[in-house]
Structures are given as C-alpha cells and as structure tokens.
Write a structure and sequence with these properties.
Length: 482
C-alpha cells in the first residue's frame, strides 16, 4: 500500500534507514508472493474461444507457482506450473459452440475471465483496406455502413482490434479489448472483417470472434520475420531501432509488435487484405506472400490453417505518382492460391474505385472472403468459386480463351461484349479487340492483328471488371509474360 510522504518522514528518524530498507524489501516480497495471475490482453472478458478443440492459454504468475485453471463449461480443473521467469502455458479442451462461460485462474489469488463464448475465431490482417473501419476515412465512406451499423447488434459476434504497435524486437502482448457488435462499437471496427464475420454468423449460427491486426500502408515485409526474409535480400532488416525508418513498412516491425503476441491463440484461420504497398515491388510478391503464409503456419502450429485473401481492387495508381501497372501485382496474388494449399483469393475486379485506393464496397470484400471460408473450410454446399483463366489457343486471326472452375459458363456482366480485351502480334503492340462468347470460350480478334500471339483482359491499373461466371468476377489476366 502506498504511503504519504509525511508518514515516511515520521518513520525514518525512529526506525533508521536500514529498518526502512528491510521493511520495503519485506513489503515487496509480500506483494510478489500474492501477485495475481496476469494474462495478455487477448485473454479477457467477452473473448471467443475456438470450439471443439484444445485451445492455448498463457500468462504470468509467481515463479514456480502452480496455476489452477477451472472452466465453467465442464467444471474441470487444469494445472500448470510457471517457469522461473513466471511464464506459464496450458491447453484446455473446449465444447461445442455456446456460452457465456467463465474461466477461473488461481495461483493463490483468483482471476476470473467472464462472458466467454465458444465458437469460430478468425484473425484478420493487412493494410488500410482491412483496417478501414465502418465509419470510413475522412471523405471516404464505406457503402451501406450507416444502415448496416444500425442493424449490427449481435451479442454473439465479438471483435478485438490490436492497437498499432511497431517494434524492433518481438513483444508478448497487444493493447485492445473484446467488444460485442453494436452500432457504437462497430463504428471503430474493420468493415471488411465485420462483413466477413456477419456472414459466418448468419450461415453457421454460432458465436464468431474476429481478431484484427492491421495497419494502413503496411508492407508485406513488415509482417514477416528476418529469417523468412532471407530469401528476399532487397528487404532491409533493421539492425537497431534507429533503422526503423517507417513504423509500418520496415521489415519485421509489425510481426514483432502486432502479430507475435497473437501467435498461438487457437483459431480457425486467417483473412488478409494487403498488397497495395507492394505494387512497386510486385515481382517478388507471390513468393513473399507464400513464404509469409508458411511462416505463420509454422509458428502457429495449427497445421495448414485456411488463409483467404483479397486481390487488390483496381485503382488508378498514377494519381499517387506511381508509374507501375498494378495488374502485375494482381497477377502475383493470383499465383499464390496455386502455390500454397488451403488458400483462396477473393477477386474484386468489380469493386474498385478509379480515384480512390480505399474502395467503398467493403461488404463485397468481406462477404467474398466469407464465401471462400464457408465453401472450403465449413463445406457448405452450393457456393460458387471464382473462375480463372486457364489457357488460350490461336486459330488464325482469332484467339480462343478458356477458363477453369466455370461450370455455369462465363459471361459479360454489362452487355453482350466487353471493351477490356486487347490482342497483340509478335510486335508486342496491343490493340483493342472485338470479343464474343461461344460455349464457355471467349473469342478475341482485331482487324489490326492478323497473327495474334497474346491476349490481355483488364490488365491495367483501373478497370471496371465485366467478365463474370456464376455471379463472381474473373481476375484480370494476360497470356504473355512480356
């Protein structure tokens, strides 16, 4: 207990300096002996735990203390011993979806976590288009957010947002708290993540927990470790805090400050919306994102958990002075789902904004991610997949383009033809093309190209995609590698 300065002055002359020091040491020992269990911020009132599995829980206590953990859903007690540094970890079994429950932790003094739900947990990460809250950015609203926010009250949809934190070395906790979906709480929560979670709630009818760790403008490299980045020598790893020239772009700093504290929290999978910052470095992105996914999976020790991501939406990057075609980054993103198992890409060719890097259609992004999860992770039938470019055949002056995952056949969403196709001959000069569809094939030709060798679709910074299949857009693509 803290003492007033005047009290200390009265005691000092009578007891002497040595007695005061001994007394302070004794008080410190008593406080240490009776210290309560402490937990990272991710373990708190209102949290969601992954259902029907063994979940990890960890924290700190007195060194060499026995920590007793009692779960209200089965009344069972689990024990673990803290190490010399006071750290401890335990796994506990969870039941089918339900709640609310409590967990009581006791190392001589009790700590109780209340209002716990058991359900589905997803980590949501990336840069500004994942971070963008339902209230939007200044002058950049989220379409439908006001109406959807008013209807958002849901005690079984819980949200945790990790506060921005850039660090030179890995840390053990993030700042944030679990909140339930409501008009007030949702205003400051990721729109993409919310729409993803809302659809899971509607279809699965179980509690859903969303843990957001994102930072606008962040580079993929910032979410990776130095070890993973050895394959990418152009990534400059900071050797001291003075080398952190950008808090969200410097390699490793967001892994250290925001991801590392979450690793080990038992969850179902990850959704990811990032790539805009890597447009100027597009050439390595498919390998880099693939490496990052494998690295996260290795550290989480949850096998090959599902990883679903958004392809960046079309936008005119010349408006920010970038002389690079972002379709090259979209192409790299499309490669990842073919390189890494249990991944999937949500295509957003119809959900961009020519003059804004933050598209308004966050419901489209979140729900397309949810469709990937519902179809592939939860095995809900009847959900279509994005059709993909598969190959091309040149027949005289005409190119015939075919697609996979196109059971319902491709079509143009805005009419009977499209002005987003180009065709080129051996001179590599692309010309606008005439296009039409016959029996799930797109036919492409131009009077200016007698012997075509390459076709491109929407392969530009900005394009309002119009090639669809089964209600979903098809990614921009090219048949060449020029």
């Amino acid at each position: 207990m803290a003492m007033k300065e005047s009290s200390i002055q009265r005691i000092t002359p009578r007891c002497g300096r040595r007695a005061l020091v001994m007394g302070a040491a004794l008080m410190l020992g008593i406080l240490t002996t009776t210290a309560k269990v402490t937990l990272p911020k991710i373990f708190g009132d209102g949290m969601v735990l992954q259902r029907e599995t063994q979940v990890n829980i960890w924290g700190e206590a007195r060194h060499d203390a026995m920590v007793k953990i009692t779960t209200s859903w089965d009344k069972k007690r689990h024990t673990t011993k803290s190490a010399r540094d006071g750290k401890w970890k335990c796994t506990i079994p969870t039941p089918e979806a339900g709640g609310p429950y409590t967990i009581t932790l006791d190392d001589g003094e009790k700590t109780i976590i209340r209002d716990i739900l058991i359900g589905e947990v997803w980590v949501c990460s990336g840069q500004s288009n994942m971070e963008m809250t339902m209230k939007g950015f200044k002058g950049q609203p989220v379409e439908g957010a006001i109406e959807d926010g008013l209807r958002s009250l849901d005690h079984s949809l819980r949200m945790f947002t990790a506060k921005r934190n850039s660090q030179f070395s890995p840390v053990d906790t993030v700042y944030g708290s679990w909140l339930e979906a409501s008009p007030a709480n949702l205003r400051e929560f990721s729109a993409t993540a919310y729409y993803f979670g809302r659809m899971l709630r509607q279809v699965l009818n179980v509690p859903v927990g969303l843990m957001v760790a994102s930072w606008g403008g962040s580079a993929c490299e910032a979410w990776m470790t130095a070890e993973w980045l050895k394959a990418f020598p152009e990534a400059k790893i900071p050797q001291s805090p003075a080398d952190i020239h950008s808090p969200n772009r410097t390699p490793t700093v967001l892994y250290n400050g925001m991801l590392h504290p979450l690793i080990g929290y038992t969850m179902r999978g990850v959704i990811w919306y990032q790539g805009e910052d890597n447009v100027p470095r597009y050439a390595t992105y498919s390998d880099m994102l693939s490496t990052m996914i494998r690295g996260w999976r290795t550290e989480w020790q949850q096998a090959n958990f599902p990883f679903y991501y958004c392809q960046i939406a079309p936008y005119d990057y010349s408006l920010i002075g970038w002389d690079v075609n972002s379709a090259l980054l979209r192409e790299q993103q499309a490669m990842v789902e073919k390189k890494v198992e249990n991944t999937g890409m949500a295509v957003l060719m119809d959900a961009g904004l020519e003059y804004g890097i933050h598209p308004r259609k966050k419901r489209v992004a979140g729900e397309r991610l949810a469709m990937l999860a519902l179809g592939n992770t939860y095995n809900i039938g009847g959900i279509p997949e994005h059709a993909r470019y598969e190959g091309v055949e040149f027949r005289g002056d005409t190119a015939v383009v075919r697609f996979d995952r196109s059971k319902e056949w491709v079509y143009f969403d805005k009419g009977t033809t499209s002005d987003l196709f180009e065709i080129a001959g051996a001179d590599r000069v692309f010309h606008p093309a005439k296009v039409w569809i016959e029996r799930n094939r797109v036919y492409v030709k131009s009077d200016s190209v007698s012997n075509p060798v390459a076709v491109r679709y929407a392969f530009k910074n900005w394009a309002d995609g119009d090639l669809f299949c089964d209600g979903l857009p098809i990614s921009s693509f090219r048949t060449d590698n020029w």
